[in-house]
Specification:
- Belongs to the CCZ1 family.
- Pfam families: Intu_longin_1, Intu_longin_2, Intu_longin_3.
- This is CCZ1/INTU/HSP4 first Longin domain-containing protein.
- Strand 13 and strand 14 form a beta hairpin.
- This protein folds into three domains: 166 residues, Beta-Lactamase (2-Layer Sandwich); 154 residues, Dynein light chain 2a, cytoplasmic (Beta-Lactamase); 95 residues, 2-Layer Sandwich (Beta-Lactamase).
- The strands form four sheets. Strands 9, 10, 11, 12, 13 and 14 form a six-stranded antiparallel β-sheet that branches.
- With 449 residues, the chain is α+β, with helices and mostly antiparallel strands.
- It is built from nine helices and 19 strands.
- It is globular and about 65 Å long.
- 35% of the residues lie in helices and 27% in strands.
């Protein structure tokens, strides 16, 4: 009987070569190593090997350093997020164990873990660290190298224990943002509400407004919005109580319907420090997150002192009734504009726009429980997406062994993938279905025929 082992994080480390200038001081370059149980000699040996690989590749490509390395059992990704500081992530390749002639035989499935997935996981780990700690060089300058080591240890020791790399896929690579489609009138109401909040409380410099698990408004820069949305989704939106099938849960009755969420680990505090770009500078801000039903308002407060209970109370009193009223209006709008019946379509679709990071796919929705695709199909979509990183436009049509059809298109900054689960269809029928999908879902977006 065959047993299967999924991909897993084997090691992750951060090092700075310039900290070791003499032989015998190699341990000084180690800023963080996961798992911490590894012996010091192993840490030094692994980091030295990665440093040698990077330097060797620079001989052939000075402007583009080594990004990934494959072995039979692992894949490694390298990243220099800041000058002179390197990060390396090592992931085990999925394998199956079978018994052949009374002997154990291991078969490795390299196609089940794509390079782009490992690279995206590594980049995201740095983005999350930077969101809550600022830059590594900034920490080193203000708190010394030992201070940087402590910050890395506090953050990453817990971070990598919660990462299931086997569940990462095309969505982890794209890191798109689902937007809630509103008309101009409804969007203007949200905009006016946000402006009223920032005008009333001058300490609030930026805001982000989310409804359900879809973004409505963001005052952050685009990349900060992407990183912050991923954090908010992982820490709150994904674990929110099951909403109604409409996708927008009802607003609870009662005078006190709003509350602060994402409390600090110390307990009691309802804010934490984050680092975002404000006026073209990476600025530490206190994050307040206030929710009424499905609507969540994230506020970035710029102040040196910790806001007192009076400030928190004034915000709560101000936001409560206004956000409850706005939530009701948004829910009514969504209810009026959604189709009365949800038709189960014989296809799975992914659309991504690189310009505004907008992503659209029924596979992302928690309300389409009937939708699912196999791991092999998800890996194939991830591989196609990686191929399109090298192209400006193109189209690929694939028929799988299981008689599924996959159509992938890229036109400029837009990518479109569709998987047909209906069998016994030919190429002409698939092409016609793709044309109908584009007309239905993207009537105002140009896709070449």
């Amino acid at each position: 009987m065959a047993t299967h082992q999924e991909a897993a994080v084997k090691s992750f480390f951060v090092y700075c070569p310039e900290l070791s200038t003499k032989e015998g001081t190699e341990h000084l370059k180690v800023l963080f190593y996961f798992p911490d149980t590894a012996q010091l000699n192993r840490k030094i040996r692994n980091i030295g090997l990665c440093e040698a690989l990077v330097n060797f590749c620079k001989t052939f490509s000075p402007d583009k350093p080594c990004e990934t390395v494959h072995t039979q059992k692992t894949k490694q990704a390298f990243l220099e997020p800041e000058p002179g500081i390197w990060m390396t992530l090592t992931v085990t390749i999925p394998c199956s164990e079978t018994i052949h002639n009374s002997e154990r035989v291991l078969e490795y499935h390299e196609h089940l873990i794509q390079d782009s997935v490992v690279q995206a996981a590594l980049q995201r780990s740095y983005n999350m660290f930077k969101l809550f700690n600022g830059t590594m060089r900034g920490i080193e300058a203000t708190q010394s190298v030992e201070g940087l080591k402590k910050r890395l240890d506090v953050f990453y020791s817990r971070y990598w224990k919660n990462i299931d790399i086997a569940r990462h896929n095309i969505f982890s690579v794209l890191q798109g943002i689902p937007f809630l489609p509103l008309d101009k009138y409804m969007y203007l109401k949200v905009h006016c509400f946000v402006n009223l909040v920032e005008t009333t409380f001058r300490q609030i410099k930026r805001t982000v407004f989310v409804c359900g698990d879809q973004l409505v408004w963001s005052g952050l820069e685009q990349e900060d919005t992407r990183i912050f949305y991923q954090y908010l989704y992982d820490s709150w939106l994904r674990h929110n109580p099951n909403p109604e099938a409409s996708g927008i849960p009802s607003v609870p009755a009662g005078p006190n319907t709003g509350s602060f969420i994402l409390e600090d680990e110390t307990g009691g505090k309802k804010n934490t420090w984050v680092y975002v770009m404000i006026n073209q500078m990476l600025t530490p801000s206190r994050l307040f997150v206030y929710a009424v039903g499905p609507c969540v308002l994230c506020m970035f407060v710029q102040t040196d002192d910790s806001p007192g209970d009076d400030f928190i109370k004034r915000i709560s009193v101000f936001l409560g009734p206004r956000l409850m009223h706005l939530t009701t209006e948004i829910r009514d709008f969504v209810s009026r504009n959604r189709s009365q019946s949800v038709e189960k379509q014989p296809y799975r679709m992914v659309y991504f726009n690189e310009m505004n990071l907008a992503i659209k796919s029924p596979l992302l929705s928690r309300y389409n429980s009937y939708l699912s695709i196999t791991q092999d199909m998800m890996c194939l979509l991830t591989q196609l997406n990686a191929e399109y990183d090298k192209l400006n436009e193109g189209e690929t049509v694939i028929r799988t062994i299981a008689d599924y059809w996959i159509v992938a298109r890229k036109n400029g900054h837009r990518r479109f993938f569709v998987l047909f689960t209906q069998k016994d269809v030919n190429f002409a029928e698939v092409n016609e279905e793709v044309r109908k999908i584009c007309q239905k879902e993207f009537s105002n977006i140009y896709f070449f025929d």
